[in-house]
Design brief:
- By secondary structure, this protein is α+β, with helices and mostly antiparallel strands.
- Helix content is 34%, strand content 25%.
- It has a single domain, classed as 2-Layer Sandwich (Beta-Lactamase).
- Strands 3-2-1-6-5-4 form a six-stranded antiparallel β-sheet, sandwiched between helices.
- Helix 1 packs antiparallel against helix 2 and helix 1 runs parallel beside helix 4.
- The longest helix has 16 residues.
């Protein structure tokens, strides 16, 4: 059984290394997409400081559809190319936005959000969706967060059967 442990870290690299271990233990033996996405988003929401939304959007029928998340109710449909999530989906690349109010076409599901990072979910060249993380703090995310979160997403994808959404 998994128990959420408080992470004592002095640097972001230590924090993300500790989170990698927790993700491995949390998802070990479970491959269900919805179960893993729900637990993964909860782990990040409660382990990383200064967040107000963490969750998944899955690619279905040519658009992004909200999946498991932590935070206030969210936009359900996002078009590819629209907002930060749609841009990350279109580019198939992580989009890090230090100030969402300066991002053209930002979709404000929660008016408290000031910065955002969106990591695409790619496995074997296939686009599955995105992991979206918002913060009420301007410039909350940096390149260290990007690297750490991309590693966590990679681990999530390796341990999860995503075939049911394709």
């Amino acid at each position: 059984m998994f128990t959420l442990e408080k992470i004592e870290a002095f640097s972001k690299s230590e924090l993300y290394a500790a989170l990698e271990k927790q993700v491995h233990h949390l998802l070990e033996g479970e491959t269900d997409l919805i179960a893993n996405a729900a637990n993964f988003s909860a782990l990040l929401y409660y382990s990383l400081p200064d967040l107000n939304w963490v969750g998944f959007y899955f690619y279905r029928n040519g658009e992004l559809i909200v999946g498991p998340f932590q935070g206030k109710p969210a936009c359900v449909h996002i078009q590819i190319g629209k907002g930060v999530c749609g841009t990350a989906a279109e580019k198939r690349a992580t989009v890090l936005v230090k100030n969402v109010h300066e991002f053209p076409g930002h979709i404000a599901c929660d008016s408290a959000s000031n910065s955002e990072i969106v990591i695409p979910l790619m496995k074997h060249g296939e686009f599955i969706g995105v992991l979206d993380i918002d913060s009420p703090v301007l410039e909350r995310f940096d390149e260290d967060d990007q690297k750490g979160l991309e590693r966590l997403v990679h681990l999530f994808l390796e341990m999860t059967d995503y075939s049911t959404i394709l």
